[in-house]
Amino acid sequence: MDENTTRLVEQLKNNPAALQALMRSQDGQALLRMLTQGDQGAGLQRAAKAAAMGRPEEMVNMVNRIMQTPGGAALVERINQAVRK
């Protein structure tokens, strides 16, 4: 994960209201669809549980896979810009 995305994750982790607003947004919904496609969200649930227990590697890998696609990279960049505002 690049530095901007790491910063985004930290900002959202420390600001639950911003995270809720993001997840209600169009881009947040698109990100959620990307994270859950293929396994109906089972992988995301496993990754979230592991991250909550101090093991964020699986979540980082999921985000990295998304960012390797042009659409995913653009989506994460839009989210980064929205959170900075």
Radius of gyration: 12 Å
Straight-line distance between termini: 21 Å
Average pLDDT: 86
Residue share in β-strands: under 5%
For the report, how would you describe the main beta sheet? Answer: none
Tally of alpha and pi helices: 6
Helix content: over 70%
Q: Given the helix and strand composition, which structural class is it? A: mainly alpha
Describe this structure in words.
By secondary structure, the protein is mostly helical. Helices cover 81% and strands 0% of the residues. It is built from six helices and no strands. Helix 1 packs across helix 2 and helix 4 crosses helix 5. The protein is globular.
Write the layout of secondary structure elements.
Blueprint: H1 3-14, H2 16-24, H3 26-36, H4 42-52, H5 57-67, H6 70-84
Helix pairs in contact: 1-2, 1-6, 2-3, 3-6, 4-5
